[in-house]
Amino acid sequence: MNYEKIYNQIIQKANSEDRKKIKGGVYYEAHHIIPKCMGGEGLTKDPSHPNIILLTAKEHFICHRLLCEIYPNNKKLIYALWCMITSKGSAGKRYVPSSRIYDVIKNQQSGIRSELFAGRKFSEESIAKRKETRKNWKHSDETKLKISNANSGKIRSQEYKDNLSNMHKGKKAWNAGKKTPDDIKARISETMKRVRQEQKQKQNLK
Questions:
Q1: Looking at beta carbons, which pairs linking 98-103 to residues 24 or more positions away fall under 8 Å?
Q2: Model pTM?
Q3: What is the pLDDT of residue 69?
């Protein structure tokens, strides 16, 4: 399959249309035709830039998948695709792939994040912004269901387990020396009780 040809066709189609971001209109996402990690210029807030094109959510997802096929050794492209499908985007309008495709991409990016950010230091301001973003960020119910279905009954290969183990070897646990607050313990306890009850209910229905 000629992935590059398909990619160019999507870009050309979008370029031939007079696409604009209008409140209440068609939902578009800005895309770098030449990826930033490959030297592509332009800000997504400036659709007039020649390297920025407006795509539908599905087109945007497909283009990022095609880029990963065109440049299979570019780990940054794989990580960018993973960030795309795990981000809600604007008002949760991001394209949600099938559980099978989600699982494929998840396995592709496994271990890439730690490799890409090895030795990188973030500013205190950047860390604070990330923490604030995570507080308000939640998966949609649809995404949660697809993730759950993708992982249900899954058996991890020994290679996957070994890679996961090697990735964390020699690293200090994130919660080492930290005490869990009583209110968090109570929430965890309640969650586990609810999970056990749901599991019993499912077993009784079988």
A1: 98/146, 99/146, 99/147, 99/149, 99/150, 100/150, 102/146, 102/147, 102/150, 103/150, 103/151, 103/154
A2: 0.57
A3: 93
